[in-house]
């Protein structure tokens, strides 16, 4: 049998892990089961990735990069700021609709990583990366169209992602096409309003907010 290098085996194992866990859940994603999914020895998984957590980290990275690539590919080159953000948000939502199992798997891996010290750092890196990429898309759209941002791109990105994550969870648990489209439109409008400074930023005392957070 011809030898397969770790570099060649790596994407194969990532795909096998995604196929298995998207179908049966993260709990089913043991190295033995993933190896069986691909039809290789269990030792191959450990030789290629080291640990199961390292493989999970690669799965998170792969899924995120795949979705990011789809959104970037949809970015218009000659639209105004409003249309650009609308197209980007719609492209991201299309990944939720068309690849719901991938989003469900990312959600499950996120919850799993919160309980795993070995994956917690990878999760934080993943989240920072998502915010960074979203911020870059906002900045690129603003610079191309000459739109002055009323808030830092990072704040706009985190605001949008917070709403989008909630909408994604609603789709996964209780899908409703009409309601989801209305909520997505409202989220885009709210994000645009924040970016353009058309949202009244109420000056709530910082010590009050910190007190509420601390008491919680």
UniProtKB/TrEMBL annotation:
Q: Which InterPro entries match?
A: Homeodomain-like_sf, HTH-type_TetR-like_transc_reg, HTH_TetR, Tet_transcr_reg_TetR-rel_C_sf, TetR_C_31
Q: Coiled coil where? A: none
UniProt KW Transcription regulation keyword: yes
Give the SUPFAM superfamilies listed for this entry.
Homeodomain-like, Tetracyclin repressor-like, C-terminal domain
Q: Which UniProt keywords apply?
A: DNA-binding, Transcription, Transcription regulation
Would you tell me the protein name for this molecule?
Answer: TetR/AcrR family transcriptional regulator
The record's DNA-binding region positions are 30-49
HTH tetR-type domain: residues covered: 7-67
Q: Which residues form the signal peptide?
A: none
Which Gene Ontology terms cover its molecular function?
DNA-binding transcription factor activity; transcription cis-regulatory region binding
Name the Gene3D superfamilies for this protein: Homeodomain-like, Tetracycline Repressor, domain 2
Q: Name one Pfam family in it.
A: TetR_N
């Amino acid at each position: 049998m011809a030898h397969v290098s770790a570099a060649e085996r790596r994407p194969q194992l990532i795909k096998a892990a995604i196929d298995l866990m998207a179908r049966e859940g993260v709990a089913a994603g043991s190295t033995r089961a993933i190896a069986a999914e691909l039809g290789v020895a269990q030792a191959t998984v450990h030789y290629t990735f080291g640990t199961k957590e390292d493989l999970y980290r690669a799965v998170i990275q792969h899924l995120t990069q795949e979705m990011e690539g789809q959104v970037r590919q949809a970015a218009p080159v000659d639209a105004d700021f409003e249309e650009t953000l609308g197209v980007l948000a719609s492209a991201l939502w299309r990944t939720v609709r068309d690849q719901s199992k991938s989003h469900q798997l990312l959600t499950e891996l996120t919850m799993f990583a919160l309980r795993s010290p070995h994956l917690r750092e990878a999760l934080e890196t993943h989240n920072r990366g998502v915010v960074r990429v979203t911020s870059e898309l906002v900045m690129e759209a603003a610079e191309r169209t000459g739109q002055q941002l009323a808030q830092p791109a990072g704040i706009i990105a985190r605001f949008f992602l917070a709403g989008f994550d909630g909408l994604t969870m609603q789709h996964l648990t209780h899908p409703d096409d009409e309601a989801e489209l209305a909520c997505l439109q409202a989220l885009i409008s709210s994000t645009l309003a924040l970016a353009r400074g058309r949202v009244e930023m109420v000056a709530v005392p910082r010590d009050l907010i910190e007190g509420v957070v601390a008491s919680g």
